[in-house]
Amino acid sequence: MHQRSSLQIQWAVIHALMVREMKTRFGDHRLGYAWALLEPLFQILFFSLMYAFGSRTMVGGLAIPVFLATGIAPFLYFKKVISQSLGAVTANQTLFLFRQVRVFDAFLVRFLLEMATQILSRYCWLTAPWPKTRITMAVQLSTLLLVMVTQI
To answer: Among 109, 133, 113, which residue's Cα sits nearest to residue 121?
Structure first.
């Protein structure tokens, strides 16, 4: 019988926890993945609207959406990673009965999942072919959301 090395066991634990976290976080539906991509955009849009109602178009020489994408988005990412990691122990408490699963593994998996989600969402939004007008963008986003919701 072939024995696995400790590195192979550690990899299997990380993989199993990652699959479990993805299932519980995003579910079996496409809407969970869509929300992960749309949440940063909604945050930036919300703050942009707040600044627009205050009649501000620039902050420190930058346009408001650029300022928010480069300034507040990293802060929101850090906040999300910390808040997700805080619940790692209580969410995986029963799994710690297995001697292969350690508390650090739960923190690591939550961190890696959140980091990958945030990087992927930023990449999708930065490389997307943006329309010229805001109305066109609103129509495209609402159509995309409607299609994703109806195909659950």
So the answer is: 113
